[in-house]
Design goal:
This protein is mainly α. The chain is built from six helices and no strands. Helix 1 runs antiparallel to helix 2 and helix 2 runs antiparallel to helix 6. The longest helix has 23 residues. The N terminus is likely disordered.
């Protein structure tokens, strides 16, 4: 039985770049064959190459010199779809190329990079979502703790109703049940 050889340091970046190039080449070849418009293929290429360039910058900068970017607007919204595994549905066959990416995500070097730099998750999670890969445990976001309900301010007591303007009915003058307040006299008609 052979033991797996550990990946040498610095091997992750060329492997990721090779994966991006292979994915772009597959999209170019299979995209036109499946009727995907040329401008859409170019948008997909730009998106993938942008993710690759961000990952290369992140892997090249030493950990102590990295700065976190401020959260804000990311720019104009991309016209590409956003649902899970949209690229594998649009261009069948990308799942075979995605298997290389899944294997790369499961390496110890990738887990160490993600643990050292949380910014890597912002690059790799969208790529996993695009290719239909469930992120491994190192990439999953921690679950947000449920927020405690805000304490409610004490409600002021409603003011007491004012005393009635008319006097209360006299209990000595009881009324028959169903009696009206004023019964007009009945006229008797002569026959």
């Amino acid at each position: 039985m052979t033991t797996p050889t550990p990946t040498p340091p610095g091997f992750l970046l060329p492997r990721f770049e090779t994966f991006i190039e292979a994915l772009c080449a597959h999209i170019a070849a299979a995209g036109l064959k499946h009727g995907v418009a040329g401008p859409v293929i170019v948008l997909i290429w730009q998106r993938l190459r942008r993710l690759g360039a961000r990952f290369a910058r992140l892997a090249a900068i030493p950990a102590r010199r990295r700065k976190t970017a401020r959260a804000g607007s990311a720019g104009p919204r991309s016209p590409l779809p956003r649902r899970f595994a949209w690229l594998t549905r649009l261009i069948p066959g990308t799942a075979s190329v995605a298997a290389q990416f899944r294997a790369m995500l499961e390496t110890e070097e990738m887990a160490a990079l993600v643990a050292a730099t949380p910014q890597a998750g912002r690059i790799l999670r969208p790529l996993c979502h695009t290719l239909g890969i469930r992120p491994p445990t190192c990439l999953r976001r921690p679950r947000a703790k449920p927020r405690a309900p805000k304490p409610r301010a004490p409600q002021p007591k409603p003011p007491e109703p004012p005393a009635p303007a008319h006097p209360a009915p006299n209990p000595l003058w009881s009324r028959a049940p169903g009696a009206a307040r004023f019964n007009p006299p009945r006229r008797k008609f002569r026959a």
